[in-house]
UniProtKB/TrEMBL annotation:
InterPro entries associated with the record: Extradiol_RC_dioxygenase, Glyas_Bleomycin-R_OHBP_Dase, Glyas_Fos-R_dOase_dom, VOC_core
Domain VOC, first and last residues per copy: 7-131, 152-269
CDD domains: PcpA_C_like
Gene3D superfamilies: 2,3-Dihydroxybiphenyl 1,2-Dioxygenase, domain 1
UniProt source species: Paenibacillus donghaensis
Protein name in UniProt: Ring-cleaving dioxygenase
Annotated keywords: Dioxygenase, Oxidoreductase
SUPFAM superfamilies tied to this protein: Glyoxalase/Bleomycin resistance protein/Dihydroxybiphenyl dioxygenase (SSF54593)
GO molecular function: dioxygenase activity
Length: 316
């Protein structure tokens, strides 16, 4: 069986304070909150989804805000850096914007591309890179104009405890094409025009520790439920033990941990985030699956309220 993922579906991370999380990703980065729901395995914790206007696969970063959670340590077995793509000519705008919010930025070069590198309020590593490919954003918020708005993921940097085996999984199991090697990284490409460039650190990275400020998993795209079942059989044929299909309301998911320690998910593109909210009302209401709806009052009472707001620039 030959299968090739088209790229990243979403990336999920642990963070701390929910309002600070929302302020950073909506207020500063200008992403749209497309879904406000809960962690189905821990309903006292939000599960927030940020992306482009419709929350398309390849644009979605999701968070479990955990105000009392332990601090994590970025390392092997994790996505080390999440990369966002912005339109060509936009890095100067973003450098000035991040400086205005007193967010330290460094400029880095990797495999002939220039990046702005910084961290969110919890220490998650973020990069911005200019890319021609990928549709322009149709969502503008907080002073980020359409022509400079984040398009979605440029890709991700993977930290593996066993990069040789992770490289084999990316190419043989997930069907990615190796296109370059340099600066201590191996670069892979998928067929999508967003979320399509994966850089694997070529040397082993000591195991990280999960907690706030770290990525929990990275999800790869499956076109539909039928292909996802094919993926399950395919992954199993490569020696992994994928989970049964999990209903995540807005996509279905299977999970497996590759040999370098990174938790991989394969998620379906449909049904998407408009299945239970109108497209122009995404993210405005706490959405619960039917089995939690009878407990709404208790669940809402256990969650910290927050708001989507524009963030004023601090005057020095």
């Amino acid at each position: 069986m030959t299968l090739q993922t088209s790229g990243i579906h979403h990336i999920t991370a642990f963070v701390g304070d929910v309002q600070r999380n929302v302020d950073f990703y909506a207020g500063i980065l200008g992403l749209r909150l497309v879904k406000k729901t809960i962690n189905f395995d821990a309903p006292e914790v939000y599960h927030l989804y940020f992306g482009n206007e419709g929350g398309a696969p390849g644009t979605i970063i999701t968070f479990f805000p955990w105000s009392t959670g332990r601090k994590g340590r970025i390392g092997g077995g994790q996505v080390g850096v999440t990369t966002y793509a912005v339109p060509a000519g936009s890095l100067a705008f973003w450098e000035q914007r991040l400086a205005a919010y007193q967010i330290p930025v460094t400029k880095v070069t990797r495999i002939s591309e220039s990046y702005l590198s910084f961290a969110d309020y919890d220490g998650l590593r973020i990069e911005l890179v200019e890319r021609e490919e990928g549709a322009l954003s149709t969502w503008s918020f907080g002073g980020v104009p359409f022509e400079h708005a984040i398009k979605g993921f440029g890709g991700a940097v993977l930290y593996s405890t066993d990069p040789a085996h992770t490289a084999d999984t990316l190419s043989r199991t997930l069907g990615m094409e190796k296109i370059a090697e340099g600066d201590g990284y191996i670069r892979y490409r998928t067929s999508a025009d967003i979320g399509n460039i994966i850089d694997l650190k070529a040397t082993p990275v000591p195991m990280g520790a999960g907690g706030t400020g770290t990525v929990h998993h990275i999800a790869w795209r499956a076109v539909d439920d039928e292909q996802q079942l094919d993926w399950g059989r395919h992954v199993q044929s490569h020696g992994y033990q994928p989970t049964p299909v999990q209903d995540r309301q807005y996509f279905n998911a299977i999970y497996f941990r590759e040999e370098g320690g990174i938790l991989f998910e394969i998620a379906t593109d449909p049904p998407g985030f408009a299945r239970d909210e109108a497209p122009d009302a995404l993210g405005q209401k706490l959405m619960l699956p039917t089995w939690f709806e009878p407990h709404r009052a208790v669940i809402e009472g256990n969650l910290t309220p927050f708001e989507i707001r524009e963030i004023e620039v601090k005057q020095s």
